[in-house]
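Researcher: Checking consistency across runs. Here is Thioredoxin-like protein CITRX, chloroplastic again:
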Amino acid sequence: MATAAAVLPAFAAGPLSRAPTPLPRRLLSMQPSPARRDGSRGCSLAGVSGGRAPTVRRNAAAETVVPYVPGSGKYIAPDYLVKKVSAKEVEELVRGERKVPLIVDFYATWCGPCVQVAQDIEMLAVEYEDNALFVKVDTDDEYEFAKDMQVRGLPTLYFFSPDQNKDAIRTEGLLPMDMIRNIIDNEL
């Protein structure tokens, strides 16, 4: 059987030491990456190209960019697929002619379950890309509209069929993603 001195490098063969192993200098270089020529600090590995432009999703709206303020809960990323809409826009979507179901998510930025449902709805928006339309309404911004739509608990989802003769389906609370899928596929 091999001894520890034969298996371990020379610096670790002695008693346990806590001296860190130095990393090669080229891996620790701090320099602006090629994409950051504006003087902002960036860390890049030497020899790795980082000049690829960030991608933006298909439905991204540049006008929704709001500077992030930690703890405010008011940050909306521009690359979310599910677009935040006003009461007027929801009414136009519901009354207008559609070939796909419309799912409206009533949420609040301070609501924990709303964040969980929003993540599921984002994934469903990718899954049902052209087969369903997902939108969201902030109940703090559209309080009167939420009250008129009888939103009492959050999150509340409304499912509108493309067939104007069918009634809307209303759910309240945290729903599993499979149940939302089931409603879209079988009930609308």
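Researcher: Does this match what you'd expect to see?
Model: One thing to look at in this run: Confidence is low (pLDDT under 50) at residues 1-19, 23-66, 68-77.
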